Amino acid sequence: MNQNHDAKRSARERLHAQRAKDQARARRSRQAIVAGSVVAALAIAGGIGVWASMSGGGGNSTDNESARPRQASGGDKPAIPVGALDAPSTLTVWEDFRCPACRQFETGFRPVLHELEDSGHLKTEYHLVTIIDGNTGGKGSLRAANAALCAQDAGRFREYHDVLYAHQPPEQQDKFADNRHLLQLAEKVKGLPSAAFTKCVNDGRYEGFVEKSNTAFAGSGFQGTPTVLLNGKDLSKEKGGRFTAADLKKTVLAANKGKQPGKPQTPPQASQTPETSQTPKTSRPESQPATGTPQQPQPSASPS
């Protein structure tokens, strides 16, 4: 009798587990249909990939709405400039520190970006957003962005920005929500750790600045991150979505022909690939597209 009862219970458990799998598969299918129209072209073509955003939300309002980092632009679309402020070309980048496609973009384009910035040919304006916080829950996008803005006050935004992407956790692991982890990563940037930086990170001094940037992104009509514009032109739409780092360099130099390079904010530094926790399986030549694997959005969740 007991064996028969156990067998029936086991069968019910297997049936319940199978139904749960079927329901999860159906949910993923519905999400893929919704997001497919946004990312299909880039998924096929490669190039600058995007993390599709259906909500664009994330984070709560803070008490530091008026705080602004050193040399940051204000207005409705606040940004951090990197490179020569008077450079003849401007690259506008909207990105999220938890976004896998943003990491792919930064990894593939970083050497060329640093070269163009340090030579005075390019100013990069970073707009930091919190898409993944809004779509999957958590605070990692917001707190990592705040920490990066704190690094801007110390003149170390670019270095810390690169370290954050080099140590980006898996999308579903909200490791950047832990300020202690963000402070540990700051130790990889010479001259960044300080009592002032620690206080800025723990106080969330620039969270209001980040949320204002995220609000601007949500109302911009852009479909996902990274969104990359060169002198106002969306690069994901160039060359069938296969715009490479080599193309960027060629296009910037052509646009700047006959123009005087700007003066970098700081003396050029040797561009180095940040230390990473994993060794890349293969290296990507400059002429190969930096592809980001489009991610399917999850239903919005309240940040933890």
Task: Describe what is shown at a glance.
Residues 80-237 form the Thioredoxin-like fold domain. The protein is α+β, with helices and mostly antiparallel strands and 304 residues long.
Write up what this structure looks like:
- The structure is a single chain.
- This protein is α+β, with helices and mostly antiparallel strands.
- The chain has a single domain, classed as Glutaredoxin (3-Layer(aba) Sandwich), CATH 3.40.30.
- It is built from nine helices and seven strands, in the order αβββαβααααααβββα.
- The chain has helices spanning 2-45, 100-118, 131-136, 140-153, 157-166, 179-186, 195-203, 207-218, 245-255, and strands at residues 51-52, 80-83, 89-95, 122-128, 224-225, 227-230, 233-234.
- Helix 2 (100-118) runs parallel beside helix 9 (245-255), helix 4 (140-153) packs antiparallel against helix 5 (157-166) and helix 4 crosses helix 8.
- The protein is globular.
- The model is unreliable at 24-46, 52-63 and 267-304 (pLDDT under 50).
Topology of helices and strands:
Blueprint lengths: L1 H44 L5 E2 L27 E4 L5 E7 L4 H19 L3 E7 L2 H6 L3 H14 L3 H10 L12 H8 L8 H9 L3 H12 L5 E2 L1 E4 L2 E2 L10 H11 L49
Parallel strand pairs: 3-4
Antiparallel strand pairs: 1-5, 2-4, 3-6, 6-7
Helix pairs in contact: 2-9, 4-5, 4-6, 4-8
CATH uppermost class: Alpha Beta
The share of residues in helices is 40-55%
Mean pLDDT: 76
Low-confidence stretches: 24-46, 52-63, 267-304
Q: What series of H and E elements makes up the topology?
A: HEEEHEHHHHHHEEEH
Estimated radius of gyration? 21 Å
